Amino acid sequence: MSVAAGVDAGAPAGNAPKLRRLSPATMASYGVGAAAYGVKDSGFGTFLLLFYNQVIGVPAATVGLVIMCALIIDAFVDPTVGFFSDRTRSRWGRRHPWMYGAALPIMLGWLMLWNPPQASEKVILGWLFAVAVLVRSAVSAYEVPSQALAAELSGDYDERTRIMAYRYLFGWAGGLVMLVSAYLYFLAPAPGFPNGLLNRDGYKGFALAGALFMGVTILISATGTHKEIPNLPKPPAVRQSLGDNFREMLQTVQNRAFVTLMLAGLFAYTAQGIIYAISNYLYTYIWGFRGLTFVLLSLSLFAGVACAFVAAPRIGMATSKPRAAATAALLGMAFGTMPYWLKLAGLFPAVGSPVMLPLLFALVAAGTGCGVTAYILGASMMADVVEDSEVKTGRRSEGVFFAGGFFIQKCTSGVGIFVCSLILTAAGFPAKAVPGQVPVEVLDRLMLIYAGCYAVLACLAAFFYTRFPFGRTEHTLRMERLTGAPVIDSAPREPFA
Known about the structure:
This protein is mostly helical. It contains 16 helices and two strands. It has a two-stranded antiparallel sheet.
């Protein structure tokens, strides 16, 4: 394998991806790899702050700050992986060497993350920072090349939405499988721990199962898509200086459509990060969830994801992707915050009421479905940006673009956790709190600040989605230019967005 630099601006049209539909086997193989990121995301977003704060005993604001600081390293790791992935040349193509190589480091780092040493607070925080950087860097080495495949497997405008729908379906499925496993088995109530989420020993089994699950799904995805390597674009490479390389990368990321999606994603995924990080606090201390109730919650989340899997490709075919993503983001926020606004107003059914759980789960499913629809459409638009950049620069830079998108996604476990820690601090939430013994005024402040932050972030995400500068017609014209052949498109033409 070699890593070359630069792309010939006069690359022939044959370097564009084929306009084709993928087989169900290829779709499933590609999508299943996202389950590994789902495990990582659910672990980081749902349990990591709770584990180091409520189980280990480190202040929430400090944990959140350390995890956010690790994002600084990601800001360099992600584009570097994307840049060199674009320039990798091997008999296994540009992406697969990275995908295969990431499995073992991810597994080892995951085990270390949930088994910190018995030491002082400073040592534990240093361990958390170092291992969080290791895990996220290893995940980047897999996710960035894997996501870049979405723009290479097919150049079809609508097929890319289907590809991303599969990716999000498996990604959420992986995360929810680990959530259900945690609530039912690893972190279930045990002698001495009526709230199993506070049982440190349970996290050891959780870590081992997660590591094995991530390693297996990554290898299944890499081997299952291996047969597609001959069908992927093979842009030529030329040797250039390091300075020329980084000037090219800077030119690439100045693409207007890319910057717009980065801003939309920044706000959308930060909102998701807050939801993940604060969910156990909300469901445990406000709604009184235990054991099996968390399983029912996970099922309602997956019901929402399944609806998005079906709906997002159809919505993308029927209307403007940017406008649909903005609408979905706003609806997701409306459904997601409704229980808290109603509870603050005294209008939501009380805890223990027979209608409380069904109503809450219905709103959770609706909010999740709308939110995931926005994510799928946004990721599909990122794949379309590749050809926009290729026409302008002569280079295919899938890795660089998806590295930027992936860095924004990792705000889920960085900025989101940090903001969540600030919310907990502002609400005056106590460390090692006992369910049922937290003052009502503290819980009210928690709900108010959380719902307000979510609403602001969702509105900002929707605004930037609507600023995306092109749609189906422009993409079709670019593909005709790159392939040198007319593109047959039977889907309805969307209005310019």
